[in-house]
C-alpha cells in the first residue's frame, strides 16, 4: 500500500478496491466449502420401509431442497469467478 | 433382518424410526447452517468496490458478482424455509403416528376387555350346558386313542408325529408381530374373561378392571393361577440362598451394547459392578440374566417359571429376593446410585427393583422383559428394548403407567424365523445386536439416556465385578 500524503488517489483507490475484492473472493471461497459441508447434511431419502404418498411427497421435497442448494452453490461459484475476473481486471489497470 | 429401530415414549408422544428422527435432526442443523450462510452473504457489500475510483473497467464483472451473491442469498433463504418445513413435517408425522398408536392401543385394550368379558360370560354358561356331552366325547376320544395305540401303535405314533409337525410348521405364528400384539392386548384381558365367566355385568367388569378402580388386573389373575397351581405342587415359591461366586477387576460400562454383553449367561444369575473413587460413595451397576428353568415345578433354580409367574402377579419372586440379597451383600443401600440392566425375567426383576422405591435407581435398561404392567415411576430413566416378533415381552401386557423410552425392532422382517426355536427373536444374541444399533443411533432420547447411564460411573478409579449365584432352598 502506498504510504504518505503524495500517494496517487486513483492508484490508492484501485489498491483498496482490489483488497476489498480479494477479501470478498476469500469469503466466497469459504462459503463454497461451507455449503459443500452443509449439503452433506441434507438427507438424500429415507432408507426405510416407509412407503406411500407421504413418502413420495417427502422425497420430492428433498429433491427440491437439493436443487435449491445446488443452484445456490452455482451462484456463489459464479460470483467468485466474477470477483476474480474483477481483481484481474484491476491488476491489469494498475499495471 | 431390519436394522431400523422404532423409538417412542420417554415423555414424548413422537414415535418413528431412528432414521427419520436422524433426518429431522439433520434437516434442523442444515437449516441453522444455511441461516448463517444467508447472514454472511447479506453482510457482503459487493457493490462497494464498484463505487471506488478506477474500477470502471471491472464494473461488469463486479455487477455480475453482486447479482450472483444476491441470487445465492435468495436460494439459500428458500432452502432454509424448505429444510425447516421438512424437519417440522417429520416431527409432526412422528407425533401424529405416536398419538394414533396410543389411541389405537387404548381402543384395542378396551375392546379386547369387553370381548373377553362377553366370551367368559358365554363360555361359562355354554360350559354348563355342554359339559356332560364334552365329558362323554372326551372320554370316548381318550378310549379310542388308547385302543388305537394298543392295536395299531404305528398309526398312533404317526398321528402324534403329524401333530408335532403341525405345531412346528405353525410355530412361526409366535413370531408374527400381529400375533405378538394380539397376545399383548389379550393377556391384560384375562381378568375381564374371568370376571365375565363369574357372571359380572360389563359395567362392573370395567369398574373393577385396570382402567377402573383396579382390584382386578393381570396381577390378580396370574396370582389366582399361581395359587391354584400351588395346590398341585406347581409354581410354589420357596426361600432362596445367594452366594458370591467370584470377583474380578473390571472397567466402566460404556453404552447399551456393552451393558447387554455384561448380562450373566453362565451359572451366575447376577453380576454387580462396584464403582469406587476416593472421597465419594460407591456407585453400582447390576446385571440380571433371563429365565434358566421353564419347569412349572420349583427346583433349585430361582430364575424359573415360578419366579416369572410370581413376578407377573406382583409378588416378590425367588429371583427378586435373590437379587435383593445380592445387593445387600454388595453393600448397595437406599442412597447408592444404581443402574440396573436385565434381560427377559432379569428385566422384569430390574423393573420391580426400580418400582420398589427402596433403591436410588438412576437408570433402568431392560431387554425383552415382560414388564409392561410394572409401575416404574416416571422419573426413573428407563430404556426398554423389545423385538416386535418376540412374544415374551408381550406376556407382560400393555404399558400401564410407566413411560419408558421404548426401542422396538423386528428381527425377522426379511426372512422367516428359524423353525427349530420356539421364540427365536427372544434370543439374547439378537438383543445384543439391537443394543449395538442403539449405540449407533443418532436419536436425542437415546443419546441423553446413554449420557445419563454413563454419569453414574463417571470418575470411578476402580471397578470391581462380583458374580452371584442363587439357589432355591426347599
Tag the structure with descriptive keywords:
heterodimer, A: 95 residues, mainly alpha, 79% helix, rod-shaped, B: 474 residues, ten-stranded mixed beta sheet, 15% strand
Describe this structure in words.
Chain A has 95 residues and is mostly helical. Chain A has two helices and no strands. In chain A, 79% of the residues lie in helices and 0% in strands. In chain A, helix 1 runs antiparallel to helix 2. Mean pLDDT of chain A is 84; it is low at 1-5. Chain A has helices at 9-41, 53-94. Chain A has one domain. By secondary structure, chain B is α/β, with parallel strands linked by helices. Chain B folds into three domains: 20-103; 107-231, no CATH class; 240-473, no CATH class. In chain B, strands 2-1-9-8-7-6-5-4-10-3 form a ten-stranded mixed beta sheet, with helices on both faces. In chain B, strand 6, helix 11 (345-356) and strand 7 (360-367) form a beta-alpha-beta unit. The radius of gyration of chain B is 29 Å and the shape is globular.
State the order of secondary-structure elements of chain B, H for helix, E for strand.
EEHHHHHHHEHEEHHEHEEHEHHE
Return residue spans of chain A where pLDDT drops below 50 for at least 5 consecutive residues.
1-5
Shape of chain A: rod-shaped
Largest sheet of chain A: none
Contiguous uncertain segments of 5+ residues of chain B: none
Alpha-beta classification of chain B:
alpha/beta
End-to-end C-alpha gap of chain A: 15 Å
Q: How many beta-strand segments of chain A?
A: 0
The count of domains of chain B is 3
What is the mean pLDDT of chain A?
84
Alpha-carbon Rg of chain B, integer: 29 Å
How many DSSP-defined strands of chain B? 10
Task: Tell me the number of helical segments of chain A per DSSP (H or I, 4 or more residues long).
Answer: 2
Amino acid at each position: 500500500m502506498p504510504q504518505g500524503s503524495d500517494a496517487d488517489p486513483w492508484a490508492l483507490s484501485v489498491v483498496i478496491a482490489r483488497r476489498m475484492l480479494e477479501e470478498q473472493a476469500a469469503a466466497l471461497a469459504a462459503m463454497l466449502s461451507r455449503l459443500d459441508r452443509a449439503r452433506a447434511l441434507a438427507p438424500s431419502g429415507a432408507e426405510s420401509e416407509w412407503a406411500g404418498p407421504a413418502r413420495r411427497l417427502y422425497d420430492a421435497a428433498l429433491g427440491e431442497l437439493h436443487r435449491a442448494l445446488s443452484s445456490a452453490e452455482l451462484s456463489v461459484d459464479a460470483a467468485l469467478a466474477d470477483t476474480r475476473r474483477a481483481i484481474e481486471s484491476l491488476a491489469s489497470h494498475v499495471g | 433382518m431390519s436394522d431400523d429401530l422404532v423409538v417412542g415414549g420417554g415423555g414424548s408422544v413422537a414415535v418413528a424410526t431412528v432414521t427419520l428422527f436422524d433426518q429431522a435432526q439433520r434437516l434442523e442443523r442444515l437449516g441453522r447452517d444455511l441461516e448463517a450462510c444467508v447472514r454472511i452473504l447479506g453482510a457482503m457489500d459487493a457493490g462497494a468496490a464498484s463505487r471506488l475510483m478506477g474500477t470502471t473497467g471491472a464494473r461488469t464483472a463486479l455487477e455480475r458478482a453482486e447479482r450472483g451473491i444476491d441470487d445465492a442469498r435468495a436460494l439459500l433463504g428458500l432452502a432454509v424455509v424448505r429444510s425447516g418445513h421438512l424437519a417440522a413435517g417429520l416431527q409432526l408425522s412422528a407425533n401424529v403416528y405416536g398419538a394414533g398408536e396410543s389411541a389405537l392401543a387404548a381402543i384395542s385394550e378396551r375392546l379386547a376387555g369387553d370381548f373377553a368379558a362377553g366370551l367368559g360370560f358365554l363360555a361359562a354358561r355354554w360350559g354348563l350346558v355342554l359339559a356332560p356331552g364334552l365329558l362323554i366325547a372326551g372320554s370316548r376320544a381318550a378310549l379310542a386313542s388308547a385302543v388305537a395305540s394298543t392295536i395299531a401303535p404305528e398309526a398312533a405314533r404317526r398321528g402324534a408325529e403329524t401333530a408335532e409337525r403341525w405345531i412346528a410348521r405353525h410355530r412361526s405364528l409366535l413370531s408374527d408381530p400381529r400375533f405378538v400384539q394380539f397376545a399383548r392386548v389379550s393377556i391384560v384381558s384375562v381378568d375381564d374373561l374371568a370376571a365375565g365367566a363369574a357372571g359380572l355385568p360389563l359395567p362392573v367388569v370395567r369398574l373393577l378392571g385396570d382402567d377402573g378402580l383396579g382390584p382386578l388386573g393381570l396381577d390378580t389373575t396370574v396370582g389366582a393361577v399361581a395359587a391354584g397351581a400351588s395346590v398341585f405342587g406347581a409354581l410354589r415359591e420357596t426361600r432362596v440362598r445367594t452366594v458370591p461366586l467370584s470377583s474380578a477387576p473390571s472397567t466402566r460400562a460404556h453404552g447399551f451394547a456393552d451393558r447387554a454383553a455384561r448380562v450373566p449367561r453362565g451359572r451366575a444369575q447376577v453380576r454387580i459392578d462396584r464403582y469406587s473413587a476416593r472421597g465419594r460413595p460407591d456407585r453400582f451397576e447390576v446385571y440380571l440374566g433371563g429365565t434358566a428353568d421353564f419347569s412349572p415345578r420349583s427346583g433349585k433354580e430361582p430364575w424359573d417359571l415360578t419366579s416369572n409367574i410370581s413376578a407377573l402377579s406382583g409378588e416378590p419372586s425367588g429371583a427378586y429376593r435373590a437379587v435383593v440379597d445380592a445387593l445387600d451383600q454388595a453393600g448397595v443401600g437406599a442412597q447408592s446410585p444404581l443402574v440396573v440392566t436385565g434381560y427377559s425375567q432379569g428385566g422384569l426383576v430390574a423393573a420391580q427393583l426400580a418400582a420398589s422405591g427402596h433403591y436410588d435407581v438412576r437408570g433402568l435398561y431392560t431387554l425383552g422383559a415382560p414388564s409392561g404392567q410394572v409401575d416404574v415411576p416416571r422419573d426413573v430413566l428407563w430404556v426398554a428394548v423389545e423385538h416386535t416378533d418376540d412374544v415374551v415381552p408381550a406376556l407382560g401386557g400393555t404399558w400401564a403407567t410407566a413411560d419408558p423410552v421404548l426401542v422396538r425392532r423386528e428381527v425377522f422382517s426379511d426372512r422367516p424365523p428359524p423353525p427349530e426355536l420356539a421364540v427365536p427373536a427372544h434370543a439374547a444374541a439378537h438383543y445384543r445386536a439391537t443394543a449395538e444399533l442403539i449405540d449407533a443411533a443418532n436419536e436425542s432420547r437415546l443419546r441423553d439416556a446413554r449420557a445419563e447411564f454413563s454419569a453414574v460411573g463417571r470418575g470411578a478409579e476402580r471397578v470391581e465385578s462380583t458374580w452371584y449365584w442363587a439357589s432355591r432352598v426347599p
